[in-house]
Amino acid sequence: MSSTTVTRALFDDVMVPNYNPQQMVPVRGEDCRLWDQEGREYLDLTAGIAVTALGHSHPALLKALKEQADRVWHLSNVFTNEPALRLAQKLTQATFADRVFFCNSGAEANEAAFKLARKYAHDHFGAEKSEIISFVQSFHGRTLFTVTVGGQPKYCQGFEPVPGGIAHAPFNDLAAVEALVSERTCAIVVEPVQGEGGVIPADPAFLRGLRELCDRHNALLIFDEVQTGVGRTGSLYAYMDTDVIPDILTSAKGLGGGFPIGAMLTTDAIAQSFSVGTHGTTYGGNPLGCAVAEAVLDEVNRPQLLADVGRKHERLVAALQAINERHGLFAEVRGKGLLLGAELIDAWKGQSGRFLAAAREQGVLILVAGPDVLRFAPPLIITDAQIDTAMAALERAIEQVLEEGPES
Ligand SMILES: *Cc1c(COP(=O)(O)O)cnc(C)c1O
């Protein structure tokens, strides 16, 4: 199996053109590093979009995967399996939740959450109670339901007709939610930090206000922690850092450390509305994914690792601010834990992709959150030395782009 027989150019011939991947093709990874087909080394501050929380080729994850691969890969939900049972037990012990539903992605976890919220309202209050409130700029996945709940209309355009019964309020604007919420509301869904929307943390008072509105109107509060979960913000789940407890929480991305898995967590009372036969998925809770996720959870849910995320946050923010003092490129540096965003000043708005490409040339891989924000979501195990090396490379990239000047 030669890695040089296929190249990036082939992508444009054989793939549906819904992505435009970077020009190099990574072939191998280890901790925070990636190597491309030419053997060039990169520091990976993308973590596969906040997925490879423990970096690439983590020994504990490799061990879990290989051991389970030798036992059994797939059974379907006609049977249960030991890794799924163990993972569900650990997730319920570690969180507010009593019960877990497994699936394969963040979108599927949210799809399950929205369907459960509708079903619960239908069971307890009648079919009229079906409206979901979410937020402008939010992101909840790409199925037709989740993309419609999401607050970026461009992702729905051309796919109409879209599902109804969904309303959007501006993020962090409690008065706007108060104006929308009613007895017809079955759920409010919020990201504790909007990820794709620009790395924007929710105000603590806003989250408290949502909890109160949900309680007052018999609506469920859903936290989409697909990006913020599994240690990303410095607690196992971001809600733990607030004084708000959701009714439903969705998790994916970091949960599998790179193996596709999603989970919807909820209470015993709410879970009852997903009675036998009401919802399902062939692969959900498959033994391979659950075995890897169990290893991820064991590694991430440790006080030392979580405390280190907070410390590395400080180091990364300080480095970005120091860069900004020298170059005045960022309007704001924000985020939580190791989910950080640097919003470009007006003169550079719309050009985040140029910095991403220049950083790659300097050997460091970063993300954007839309055209105006550079996003950093490194593996939680990134070292201080790697942070320093990455920030020095980023600064060289920034200097180069600044020298070329803004595109008009
Ligand atoms: C990535 C993401 C999703 C979608 O997850 P997929 O696994 O791509 O379906 C949903 N919600 C949030 C907050 C995300 O960041």
Could you list some keywords that capture this structure?
408 residues; alpha/beta; seven-stranded mixed sheet; 13 helices
Q: Return Rg in Å.
A: 21 Å
CATH C-level class of the largest domain: Alpha Beta
- Secondary structural class: alpha/beta
Low-confidence parts, pLDDT < 50 over ≥5 residues? none
- What is the terminal separation in angstroms? 46 Å
Q: How large a portion of the residues is in β-strands, by DSSP E?
A: 15-25%
In CATH terms, the superfamily of the largest domain is: Type I PLP-dependent aspartate aminotransferase-like (Major domain)
Q: How much helicity do the residues have? A: 25-40%
Structure, described:
With 408 residues, the chain is of the alpha/beta class. It has two domains: 8-58 and 303-404, Aspartate Aminotransferase, domain 1; 71-300, Aspartate Aminotransferase, domain 2, CATH 3.40.640.10. Helix content is 38%, strand content 18%. The chain has helices at 8-14, 47-50, 59-71, 82-94, 106-125, 144-149, 174-180, 204-216, 268-271, 287-300, 303-327, 352-361, 384-404; strands at residues 26-30, 33-36, 41-44, 99-103, 131-135, 166-169, 185-190, 193-194, 200-201, 220-224, 248-251, 262-266, 330-336, 339-344, 364-365, 367-368, 373-376. The strands form four sheets. A seven-stranded mixed sheet has the order 4-12-11-10-7-5-6, sandwiched between helices. Strands 1-2-3-15 form a four-stranded mixed sheet. The protein has a four-stranded antiparallel sheet with strand order 13-14-17-16, with helices on one face. The longest helix has 25 residues, at 303-327. The structure holds pyridoxal-5'-phosphate. Pyridoxal-5'-phosphate binds at residues 105-107, 110, 139-141, 191, 195-196, 224, 226-227, 252-253. InterPro entries: Ac/SucOrn_transaminase_bac, AcOrn/SuccOrn_fam, Aminotrans_3, Aminotrans_3_PPA_site, Class-III_PLP-dep_AT. The modification N6-(pyridoxal phosphate)lysine is found at residue 253.
